[in-house]
Amino acid sequence: MIKFISAADTLPLRSEVLRKNLPLAECVFDRDQDGFHLGAYVDDKLVSVGTFFPEDYPELGVSGYRLRGMATDPAYSGKGYGAQLVKFALEHLKNAGASYLWFNARSSAVGFYKKLNCDVISEEFEVPGIGPHFNMSIQIK
């Protein structure tokens, strides 16, 4: 089940999966208050999270949204929960009038996003302290 959640609810998975168990306070994003947060639940356990906020990607035009902090509990990875979360977000963004979604994808996650029909829109680049990434996007129809 996908639900809207608070920014605070995303922090444990962000810490564990994306930030090598940094303290939760160091896993807060500057724009957490500007968007919405989704969580995928299995029974009462939060297993996947993502944060979405309005931000245009210069080459893609206006009405863009950015995804940040996509994280899935490793014990639940590969079981479709992250894909369900992204699909729910795309439907919500479509209803909100967004034109596209873009994000920095870890190189290791590019295959996951390609299965969701997302396109690579940049060369590979390094995020200091985190690793190699690509910018990716998907048009919202």
Automatic annotation (TrEMBL):
The organism sits in which domain of life? Bacteria
Q: Which SUPFAM superfamilies match?
A: Acyl-CoA N-acyltransferases (Nat) (SSF55729)
User: Where in the numbering of this chain does the N-acetyltransferase domain appear?
Assistant: 1-141
Annotated Gene Ontology MF terms?
acyltransferase activity, transferring groups other than amino-acyl groups
Q: Which InterPro entries match?
A: Acyl_CoA_acyltransferase, GNAT_dom
Would the keyword Membrane turn up in this protein's UniProt record? Answer: no
Entries under Gene3D superfamilies matching the protein: 3.40.630.30
Q: Which UniProt keywords apply?
A: Acyltransferase, Transferase
Keyword Transferase on entry: yes
Name of protein: Putative GNAT family N-acyltransferase
Organism from which the protein derives: Pedobacter duraquae
Organism lineage: Bacteria, Pseudomonadati, Bacteroidota, Sphingobacteriia, Sphingobacteriales
